[in-house]
Amino acid sequence: DQQVKQNSPSLSVQEGRISILNCDYTNSMFDYFLWYKKYPAEGPTFLISISSIKDKNEDGRFTVFLNKSAKHLSLHIVPSQPGDSAVYFCAASEGSGNTGKLIFGQGTTLQVKP
Amino acid sequence: DVKVTQSSRYLVKRTGEKVFLECVQDMDHENMFWYRQDPGLGLRLIYFSYDVKMKEKGDIPEGYSVSREKKERFSLILESASTNQTSMYLCASTESLANEQFFGPGTRLTVL
Fold first, then answer.
1. Mean pLDDT of all residues in B8-36
2. By three-state DSSP, how is residue A84 classified?
3. Residue A5 clears pLDDT 90, i.e. is over it
4. If you write DSSP's letter for every residue of A12-60 in order, what string do you get?
5. Which entry of A29, A73, B30, B106 is 20 to 30 Å from A53 by CA?
6. Taking the CA of residue A51 as centre, how many other CA atoms within 13 Å lie in the half-sphere pointing to its CB?
7. Residue B37 pLDDT > 90
8. pLDDT over 70 for what percent of chain A?
9. What is the pLDDT at residue B99?
10. Nearest CB to B98; choose among A4, A41, A98
């Protein structure tokens, strides 16, 4: 039973445009959410996180939005760059992240075309 | 800069072999994790450890065990490798359970 779902396996956008990656979750106890980026032959690297007490968090070109009622979060990348091409995983945790147990989605492969 | 290293990038083993995957972190982190990554399933937690000689089962511990004799080293053991354990194995560490986890480059294990 997949508690965190990324229903789009892949996404292709033009350089300079916005990339929107989506993530849905089913467990209402999740209260801390993270996005990781993974290049081929490398481990995932942390990108941005959001606590359930917020509905938006920004870091440069990356913004994460959280809609608790819909159990949905999204990652916006503006403007998209070719170097953003990677697999993006969303992850969720209970207990404000203090359990250390992250539940990951399946991943979305983003391709940014020059 | 946090560095998490894994002993092998690629490994090929035969069914029934005992397999050791090693992970070392250099930032004195308390917490270490082992995941496997499979297409369509994302990353799934196998085991984690929040202190030396301590271990906790993750979501898919069956067929695996772990060892944490020193703070910087966390080993994943496949007692008797099977073909369904062919996967990418990722190790991670974090200073505090509430912080983001830092990942190693992964070990691609193939069991024939």
1. 95
2. helix
3. yes
4. EEETTS-EEEEEEE--TT--EEEEEEE-TTS--EEEEEEETT-SEEEET
5. B30
6. 7
7. yes
8. 96
9. 73
10. A98
